[in-house]
Amino acid sequence: MKKIMFAALAVLAICACSGERDYLKVKGLSMGLPANVFVDSMLARGFVVDSAHSNENLTVMGRPGQPSYSVTMANNGDKIVAVEEDYRASYNDSTRGLWQELRDGFVEELGRNPGVPKRNDDHKIAEFETSEYKLVVTLDNRSVPFLSVFYEMKEKK
Q: pTM for this structure?
């Protein structure tokens, strides 16, 4: 009987390990964290919640004195659904350089090259996608210099 119990526990342990998701990291924080833990971790890093633009399913955070950077987290209950980082700059060259830096960093971190549906100096998109997640780095310098990084976890099937 003990052998059967140990065998059953071993099978459960193997199944639990093999079903682990490949979570994206946002500023070093896993998107697999509960939403409230993610927000608390961001607050500990000096971010503040913009209560005027946040609600129960959307939390907008920024750093005091840095209006050019914000993080928005969408959640469904305590599960993080998506996170978007927004960068605004005063001139186009800074966002072009940051787009390239972020794109190259994700290539190294994720070990894959992105799909690039749009690519010119003032409008670039780099998409990294697996069965687990989608990550999109977008540069749009057509009117106001703007750069965003969108992290989305896909529903597990």
A: 0.79
